[in-house]
Amino acid sequence: MHIQSLTAEQSLASLHTSAVGLTSAEAQRRLAEFGPNHVEEVERERLLLSFVREFTHFFAIILWVGAALAFLAEYFDPGQGMVRLGVAIVGVILINAVFSFWQEYRAERAVAALRQLLPQQVKALRGGEIVELLASELVPGDIVLLEEGDFVPADCRLIESFGLRVNTATITGESLPQARNADPQPEMSPLSAKNSVLAGTSVVSGQARAVVYATGMRTEFGKIAHLTQTAGKATSPLQREIARLSRIVAFLATGMGGVFLLIGQALGLPFWENLLFAIGIIVANVPEGLLPTVTLSLAMATQRMAKRNALVRHLPAVETLGSTTVILSDKTGTLTQNRMSVRRLWLGGGFFTQEDIAAQPRLATEHRALFVNAALCHNLKEIHNNGKHEWLGDPMEVALVGMGRQAAGALDGFRRIDEIPFDTDRKRMSVRCETPQGRMLYCKGALETVLEVCDSVQFDGGIAPLDAAAKTRLLAAQDEMAGAGLRVLAFAHGSIDGGLPAEERGLILAGLVGLEDPPRPEVPEAIARCAEAGIRVIMVTGDHPHTAQAIAREIGLMKSDQPVVITGDDLLHLSPAQLHLALDAPEILFARVAAVQKMQLVEALQKKGEIVAVTGDGVNDAPALKAADIGIAMGVAGTDVAKGAADLILLDDNFASIVAAIEEGRAVFDNLRKFLTYILSSNIPEIVPYLAFVLFRIPLPLTIIQILAVDLGTDMLPALALGAEKPDPDVMRRPPRARNERLLSWNLIARAYLFLGVLEAAAAMAVFFFVLDAAGWQYGESLARTAPLYLQATTACLATIVMTQVMNVFLCRHPLKSSLSLSLFGNPLILLGIAAELGLLLFIVYTPAGNWLFGTAPVGVEVWLFAVALAALMGVVEEARKAWLRRSLR
């Protein structure tokens, strides 16, 4: 028989388990037998194939063409050194392929490691004890505990159920939540059985205990896993722009090579020599290693964010964070500590504290119904572990249960038998209990919704009708408590005879309880940093408007006397145009808002051109999290559904971590611009020698092989070091960048090509002519390619480019600030990159192997002094330009 047709007891027996779960030893045995509970991933591309792809991308093909032309030139015109050039280009392709493969492998491993920081946890019974396990450790026969917001980790048969509703859309396509219970079902298919919950679905409301009967690929989800594993790898807009930029640069390089080939032919240069120069132009402009360096830069940013308690689930989120303009933030647990404690109670018409209740036993006796309500009306899990007792669940309910049990005393004879779960429409929760006085209904929730089901209220004089005067007193009491920043709940009860939900009416309102959740101490500073950074923070909470305002003022989110406060009911009556205009208010918050209404706010802000980040922790937050530009889920209190819909997960549920993540996101964009400025600057001193050779008929100052040496020595480790720069202290003191702002701006192009590049080219040509002039060379005199003077002159040009690039690393660390104001040891990777750069240069200049491979010769100390002096002069000129800009921007 199918397990769905069996009773709960028969189901347990069929799986050779019991209501207290498996023993640890039996669970380990079954894990070895059935394997881990996970769906097998689609086989990834093999490492060897991934490595081969590095030889066939766009830039590599251009270099392959260059190498082929060099070998072809050697075949038709031997003895010109073209073989060595071809070998050098192939070497560059190989080095770039290895470097790019290593970078992408590192990036992939980094992202995979980050994903493992937050594996799915499940609560299960093992030997009668509640334990938290990785979902992958579940085996058939395990007893799992499910509650609102949980993902179902395996195919399970319910054995106990309280108001359970499940979202089965991922399996059946049903858009509405489906009710589930533990009764035997005649259906043969687990897809339609009401007592089955399937892996991949999620619990919308209620609680349940269930026994696992299928795991891993044996689940219904596992059987259709191939349908969920076909999604391609996402690329961010920034990565697409980098690819676009790379194609443009590569096509320009190829075009310039072709133009130079035609110019050389027009000037009567030998064809094969002319071809050599065209190849040089192409090689000088190809941005080798650009794409993998960007990918690694993004991955490194995610690692830095993880250290600051922000787990990035998707790389595209890194760049979007930097342009966030509005944050819609929850209050409880994000802006506050989520450590609730009862501060005030309104009982019988007066205010009391918990200390008053303890000191006056009469109060606890007269209002025992409220305290019994607080002790029983909850969704907490009671855990007994190693002699310790604790409650697991919502901190607010933990505080209420603690107060209720202390004041109510022993609850012998009280047993909870059913519940109407809390939902955001009703804003209340009810439980039905067997008590010594008969069946009772206990209800708690927001005062305005509890009043709807009450017809009387408990005052000191006894039970009184809930008339207009009584409602006025209650609302005044609520406003006073909420104005003090307390979260206010109303408690009601009544005797019942029939079944739920019809009895949720005619209740007695027993009193109000005010709970305090103090703000996190670091939040006011984070709010101030957002204001300084041009980021609006809008509180969206389900709490009373007065409570929300009190907290908002305490954390500095509101300062004016007349802020705009919009409730969930107000939202229902606002037209899109009215909401659009209301969002223009400088200070606005939303209170008593249902989670589903967050979507409305997100869409309204996006239509205003805002880039919106949204925080959420519940099942109903998932639509808003997905709709937002950045969905941010709580890692501690958040449900699995919310985490699955989010781009970013806060490992500490702290608003300050969002601000830290935005800071890192802005730094990523800034660092990529530094990187681009650096590598594009070196293109000009590589191109100018060819222009000078063709136009002025001088000896070629820089050979193609030496261009490759410059690219390898200056465009790799130092560029990567710039991509790893820490966020600038001022990055959060400027407004967010525009959504349509290009990475390659005209300012960047002008600085790289028309200023820094020109300075480098001038310095390189000056040192080249310095060496020639010192040896008595005259204009128009030809030099053989193997002549010692020519080798020394080109070596001097090469060395000067490298030295100016060393200076350029420091100049590119900030577009405006002086390099002297930045810590020399603030980024150790820069010093490592420079050390590698200079080590390569010394190898090229002073070793026989370097001389043979790159066509160089040793140069004297006077050349180095002149090159260093010109590099320093370049630094002085750029620092003067920055100083002028700083003054003009004041």
From TrEMBL:
Keywords: ATP-binding, Cell membrane, Membrane, Nucleotide-binding, Translocase, Transmembrane, Transmembrane helix. The keyword Hydrolase does not apply. GO terms for biological process: proton transmembrane transport. The chain crosses the membrane at residues 55-76, 82-102, 248-269, 275-299, 743-770, 790-812, 824-846, 852-877. NCBIfam families: ATPase_P-type. It is found in: Cell membrane. Belongs to the cation transport ATPase (P-type) (TC 3.A.3) family. Type IIA subfamily. It comes from Thiobacillus denitrificans. This is ATPase. GO terms for molecular function: ATP binding; ATP hydrolysis activity; ATPase-coupled monoatomic cation transmembrane transporter activity; P-type ion transporter activity.
